[in-house]
Amino acid sequence: MASDREQLSASLNEIVRARHARIPEVKERLERLDEVSSRLNAVRLAALELPPEWTGDPAIQDAVARLDDSEIAAALRRARTELEAVLARYSRDSINIGVGGRARVGKSLLLQSISGLTDQQVPTGAGVNVTAVRSRIFHAASQQATISFHTRVSFLDEVVLPYFTDLNIPSQPSSLDDFQRLLPRLKQEHEDHRNTLDTVETEKWSRLLAIGAAIPNLQLDGGTRTLHDLSDLRRYVAYPTTADKDREDGDPTFVAPRDYLAVRDCRIEAPFPVSDLDRLALVDLPGLGETAAGIDQRIVNDLTGEVDVVLMLFRSATGQANIDDIDSKALDLIKRAQGAVRHSADFAWILVNTAPGEEASAKDLVSELHRRFNDKEPDSRHIVLQANAKDPASIHSHALLPVLSRLADRLPEMDMDVLNGAVAAMAAPLSRIQNAATQLQAAISTTAAQTGSARQRLDDLADALRKDVQSSLAQVRPARLAQEYLPLYLEAIDAIHAEVKDWLSDGLGLPGRDAWSDEAVPPSCGAWINEAKREWGLSRSHGPFANSELHRLRVEITSRYATLDLFLNDTLVEAFYTDICDSIAGQSPGSVNQSGAERAYLVGGPEPASGSHRLNRLAAVLQACDPQLPALTAAVDRLRGMRFDFRLQSYPLLYDLNRRMQPEDSTDAPFPPLFARESTEFMYEWFLEEFTQYSFRVKGELLQDAERQFRVLAGAALVFEDDVSRSGRSSREFRDLAEGYRNELWPRRFDDINRSSTRAKALSNALRGLSSAVERALDGNG
Amino acid sequence: MTMTPQLPTWNVAMLGPSRVGKTSLLTALKVAADDYFDGSPVDVRPEDDVTRLAFARNNTLMLSELMAGRFSPDLEGDQEAQQYGLKVTSGVDTHVMSLRFKDFPGGWLATSEESYVRKELMDSPTVMMPIDAALLMEADGQHSAPVLEGLGLAYVEPLVVTWAKERTKSGDPMRLLLVPVKCESYFNDNGGRFDKSDKLFKRVKEVYGRVVDRYLENAPDGELLYAPVDTIGPIELMDVSWVNLGDGRRTMKPEYRVRRDGSGTPLGRKVKGAEPILAHLIRDVLDTQRAALLQLEDEANDAIRGREAEAQRRRSNWFKRILDNLSGHHEERMSAIAQAQADLQSLDESITKLARSADAISAKDAARVRRWS
């Protein structure tokens, strides 16, 4: 027996651990659901902001109404309540058994038998309903009770107002003070209608008036009270005793204490006799079938998430006559609390309290229970147990262990049922939200597209802008650049030629007097001549040295001319970019501006930004445009990538010249000439003249070719103009550009449309947020 | 006696700006002729002291420049109209071809009487236009103004057009000579290593195309010769700079190097391309003269026939024959007839000899000559 209980205890521990492990998942689902609610509210608010011309659209009206449907809101609240119940269920450290039953069936005896508490803590009454407050009893090392009290608000909402609802009293109080002011009138009304009331109504009127009379004596501060001596507990959990009630009836000045009214929750801890079932907790449910207002819903609320199983007590001594509609209703309430748990046999048990000597009548009761609640099929819907509630051993063996054993087996599946049920409850409202959001989004897009005049106006401006830019770009004729920059380019070439001549004159690049130099030789060429003479000493000929010098000097001079790249790219291309940007900005002479666009936005101002900086800005603006502009972006990128490369260009230009500057071993006309041994100085002069002439020829070729650079720019300008304004996508992309930068290009021109558009966009964004939230909430729902 | 069987003077008008190198060109013609006709009876020499002196001075200057290993073309320009004469003979002193080169520099033309210039031009069957090849080739687009100014195109074109019209109207022959000078840097047939002759021809056509077109429009039968000349030979353009003249104008300042042998000794003057010019001048003269000669022959034959008829009339009877013999008239007439026949034959021989020489010389450097169209 002990080992069975140990195994049972281990199983229950594992169930609690598994539940805790799933808490994050449930919390995340709650957060996602809350996000949906929050996003839904944002959509509602954004929809309210829509201008009249939008809200007048029937499609938008319909879609907004579908989203604003109160059923959706209610379904979301229900889904949240279910998830909260799941969270509460998974968060518990205990396996909770709810104990219910009509008055006088031995419910308190049962609780006492399991918990070891006495009549003082769990009151029993002979033939009267004594349990006024739902109590939870936990296994603990010592006895203790924690009483949580209502606030005045929660007392009004949860205790007072349900009576007004049930009794159809029209003027509901807004506060407890208000309620107390109403009391005389309520008494009068009760007196006036006393004869028309049925029993239940009479009972409810009686309780409502008693509550009103008790309020001044109630602790309604929302606080808690801990009782270490459970002998004081009874007043907080039980109805007034019969004696007090009798006295109250006889003495109008006496008001029986009704502290239980102020109690919102009661947690009792006590060392259970069966200590190894330390995960066990009992929930004392107020008597089913009571007349207290709102009690049905309170039972369902209490059961949902709060208990894992319900033990419904019947008393055999009362006989079959007691199985009536009240019992059926009680089981129906339990059925509602069962929620998503698939098998009622797992959740709602029936215990027939059978005292010794009542076996025969118990047997009849069991049969009747099966007939009434199990369709004559024993244990098909509810398992029916028999035990003596007063006998702890009987209760343990015949009630507690069978229930817990089955729970140990079935709870994991029941837990999943509950979670899946909550998740499934979310699916329908979420889908409805999603559909309505999609419909509204489509309606907005349609309306936006149909705002014809604005679209047409923008398209007309875009077309005019394209023609303006094309017309301005057509003014970019590199002839102007040539006029300004050709002289500078020629000067740059001249300057290099002058440098080369200086360099040549300064000892052909080997300046300075050598230690062995001849005094007769001018200092500037001393090193070169000495080098030549040394070489003669090695090879007995000027040939090798002359040939090597031919190469060295040619390469050096060509390299110096290659620095023209700096001018071409840093000065000329920059100037070209500036012209292009000025044209795009409409700042060049002859620019037209039929579109009235602030085109400078596209490329920025002319100063102090360089041409390439402004072109980079244009590229960034185009790249950032929504919608995208692939053709325009590519055209600008091509222009930005333009680079002159002197070496590459000079290959064909200087080919013949350089070919002629290679050594020629000809007997008739060798090149360089065959210098005599004593002609070293002349050889120096020859190289000086030959390479001065070479540089002059290179310069000549470059000068003759100079205008080609400007033709390259002319070609680039024409291609860019074509790409920008004449390509197949040009018209469309200019319209997209106009759409993307409408306010920047035409400031204030679209203010009216902007306001509407901004609000529509805000709604559209809110809808996107809602859709995303719904998708996240639905994620994993299958 | 109307018959004068001598070669007449042939006028060549030279239209070119100052400093283009006209004296050097004429000297080059003489040098080329000396080289070519050396050892033959044909002789080309200065006709007068002015010419002789100018040629000598030019030649001396060139040689001294070359010997110094430098060359500066910035020689003093001619300020006044001058004439230079070349005599061409075939070895018979009485049959001398006289070529008169009349120089009309731009500066002078601008201040001269138009009627005088026109008259002088109309008397010239040949117009020679020396062209500064270096200026034409080395100036880039930035220097078009100095090029036009340097080439004197502005004043040349209307003169050429007037000349063509007038000569055509009177049915006189004519030839326009386009003669680029200072061409040493653009040919590789005279010691140079780079051949830019095509480009030179292209540039001449670009710049002178309009002048030539208008010449041919107005003189459909007019002759044309393009003949570039190296007037010096062993020089190469080494660098060019542009100098501001101070009045907003710029002028080209070329710098030449002189070719030398392996020991560093400068090479001597070596004219190239002048022969075709000389040949065409001679041929033009001869063609004209041959036509004139045919007329002279006819006239001479008529004269002989007249004299013979007169002789027959005077000696128609014995008495007349005695009288004729006694008076000496008979001898005189017979001598005149014989002289006329001899003169004609001699002139014809000279013409034939010169024509052969002209044909031979025109083959030399013919590669440089280009058909215009």
Q: Any chance you could write out the topology, listing elements then pairs?
A:
The complex is a heterodimer of chains A (782) and B (373).
Chain A: H1 2-21, H2 23-48, H3 52-55, H4 58-67, H5 70-91, E1 95-101, H6 107-115, E2 135-139, E3 144-149, H7 152-166, H8 176-193, H9 199-214, E4 224-227, H10 234-237, H11 242-250, E5 263-270, E6 280-284, H12 295-303, E7 309-315, H13 325-338, H14 344-347, E8 348-353, H15 359-373, E9 384-387, H16 392-450, H17 452-474, H18 478-505, H19 526-539, H20 543-562, H21 564-585, H22 600-603, H23 611-623, H24 630-640, H25 646-660, H26 680-725, H27 730-740, H28 742-745, H29 751-778
Parallel strand pairs in A: 1-6, 1-7, 2-5, 7-8, 8-9
Antiparallel strand pairs in A: 2-6, 3-4, 3-5
Helix pairs in contact in A: 1-16, 2-5, 2-16, 2-29, 4-16, 5-16, 6-16, 8-9, 12-13, 16-29, 17-21, 17-26, 17-27, 18-21, 18-26, 19-20, 20-26, 21-23, 23-24, 24-26, 25-26
Chain B: E1 9-16, H1 22-37, E2 43-46, H2 49-67, E3 70-71, E4 83-89, E5 96-105, H3 106-111, H4 114-122, E6 126-132, H5 133-138, H6 144-151, H7 153-169, E7 175-181, H8 197-218, E8 223-226, E9 235-244, E10 250-258, H9 275-314, H10 318-327, H11 329-363
Parallel strand pairs in B: 1-5, 1-6, 6-7, 7-8
Antiparallel strand pairs in B: 2-4, 3-10, 4-5, 9-10
What does this structure look like?
The complex is a heterodimer of chains A (782) and B (373). Chain A contains 29 helices and nine strands. The mean pLDDT of chain A is 85. Helix content of chain A is 63%, strand content 7%. In chain A, helix 8 packs antiparallel against helix 9 and helix 19 (526-539) crosses helix 20. In chain A, strand 8, helix 15 and strand 9 form a beta-alpha-beta unit. In chain A, strands 4-3-5-2-6-1-7-8-9 form a nine-stranded mixed beta sheet, with helices on both faces. Chain A starts with a helix and ends with a helix. By secondary structure, chain B is α/β, with parallel strands linked by helices. In chain B, 50% of the residues lie in helices and 18% in strands. Chain B is built from eleven helices and ten strands. Chain B has helices spanning 22-37, 49-67, 106-111, 114-122, 133-138, 144-151, 153-169, 197-218, 275-314, 318-327, 329-363, and strands at 9-16, 43-46, 70-71, 83-89, 96-105, 126-132, 175-181, 223-226, 235-244, 250-258. The radius of gyration of chain B is 25 Å and the shape is elongated. The interface between A and B is medium-sized, with 29 and 17 residues.
